[in-house]
Amino acid sequence: MSEEHAHDGGTEGVSTTGEEEAGGLVSGDVSRYVNYVLLAALLLLALVAGVQFYTAVSRTITRWVTDDYRSLVTAAFNLAVLLVAAAGVSRQIRRLTN
């Protein structure tokens, strides 16, 4: 059995050198680029939605929460948004580095 066939489980006609690398993207590269595009799209979506949600919640807090508690409620809301965003970005980065 040749060295090439020993590494690929003995399947014949499968070459892992030359054609795949020179002819285009390997499936692992495509998956990696899809993950990068997904991460960028999620970050853009989070930015737009976050700004709109933040302004809506800020108006609601201003209207419904008294001055004494307004900064505390706003800080708690901002912390919750930050933690959700950080969890999503962290998950995508882990997927990209594996």
From TrEMBL:
Domain (DUF8060): residue spans on this chain: 11-97
Region of interest: Disordered: 1-22
Pfam families: DUF8060
Residue intervals passing through the bilayer: 36-57, 69-89
Domain of life of the native organism: Archaea
Keywords recorded for this protein, A-Z: Membrane, Transmembrane, Transmembrane helix
Compositional bias (Basic and acidic residues): 1-10
Name this protein carries in UniProt: DUF8060 domain-containing protein
Source organism of this protein record: Halobaculum litoreum
